[in-house]
Design brief:
6-stranded mixed beta sheet, single chain, Rossmann fold, alpha/beta, 4-stranded antiparallel beta sheet, 316 residues, 10 strands
């Protein structure tokens, strides 16, 4: 396993948090989405999964999985192939129905979740395939399936091109005169395509953005650009679930990391309390045996190691 490049990936939790602040303030996504999403009542989660289980043909893909997602939070979802990540996301987006358990949005239980209902609840997914039409221009990709039409049903092409132009400058940071709303998507780089997919989701008022392996196939520079977009999701008051195999990418932007292993939640780890090295050790243990030993990894709110119970009791 390679070490992360110099920069934010190697920072401590405190240094990483400090480094985020100016990035968020300057992020074009934030400026384009003001005012930000209304905050949830204190203690209320934007999304909750409780004891979710799912089987296919006798194979238990998910077993008693519970997780939640707060407001303005980025949660990383890590796990090897076959861990259940894709199935979990398909349950959240209404593609699959769980065999057991419940799903809550904003504290309210949702029954019979469908893809359409999930979208109405504010969930959008940016897939690793990017779900874009390469041969169509930017404006058609932005409004794909949500075209603006007039009273007689005629498309308002001019309005859609104008809105795309505004998004290009304000949200995507596309300032080159070469790129216009009529530019074919095929000409964009990998990072620009991912940015386009994220901005499209945010433009249509998504509160939860699910990123399915968004850094796959991207160069280092394009990955940094993508992570900048992820920072913008949180800064705009939205929430995200960041699925990836690469812990270095996820750790640099996630507030919390959930590790899935063979259909179960192996653990949940706030990045403010666990270093990258500790999480790497934990993931190695999980990959080898499905569990990990906490030992002295308990962390106080400021990120410093808590005293072991044994040593505390000996001094009482």
């Amino acid at each position: 396993m390679t070490l992360p490049p110099a920069g934010e990936y190697g920072m401590s939790a405190g240094e990483r948090e400090s480094a985020r602040q100016p990035t968020q303030l300057a992020n074009p996504i934030v400026a384009a989405l003001e005012p930000t999403a209304a905050p949830l009542p204190e203690g209320e989660k934007r999304l909750e999964l409780r004891h979710i289980s799912k089987s296919f043909g006798g194979v238990h893909v998910l077993k008693d999985v519970s997780m939640d997602l707060g407001s303005s939070e980025v949660v990383g979802l890590l796990g090897d192939n076959g861990a259940g990540k894709s199935t979990l996301i398909k349950i959240i987006t209404g593609v699959h129905h769980p065999d057991a358990g419940e799903i809550l949005f904003g504290g309210k239980r949702v029954e019979g979740l469908t893809v359409q209902k999930a979208r109405e609840l504010g969930i959008e997914t940016v897939y690793q395939e990017r779900a874009l039409a390469d041969q169509l221009p930017l404006w058609r990709n932005i409004f794909m399936g949500r075209a603006i039409s007039g009273p007689l049903g005629f498309l308002k092409v001019g309005d859609m091109r104008r809105m795309t132009s505004e998004l290009m400058g304000e949200s995507m940071g596309f300032t080159s005169a070469v790129l216009t709303p009529n530019t074919v998507v095929k000409g964009l780089s990998g990072g620009e395509r991912q940015g386009l997919a994220i901005v499209r989701a945010l433009h249509f008022q998504a509160d939860i953005i699910i990123l399915d392996e968004p850094t796959m196939g991207l160069s280092l520079k394009e990955t940094e650009k993508l992570l900048h977009f992820v920072e913008g999701i949180r800064a705009a008051g939205k929430s995200a679930i960041f699925i990836d195999h690469n812990i270095f990418h996820v750790y640099s932007v996630a507030d919390r990391i959930i590790v899935l292993d063979r259909g179960r939640v192996a653990g949940q780890f706030p990045t403010s309390r666990y270093s990258l090295e500790e999480l790497l050790d934990i993931m190695r243990e999980v990959a080898a045996g499905g569990t990990f030993t906490e030992q002295e990894r308990y962390r106080l709110a400021d990120g410093t190691p808590a005293a072991t119970k044994g040593s505390s009791e000996e001094h009482e």
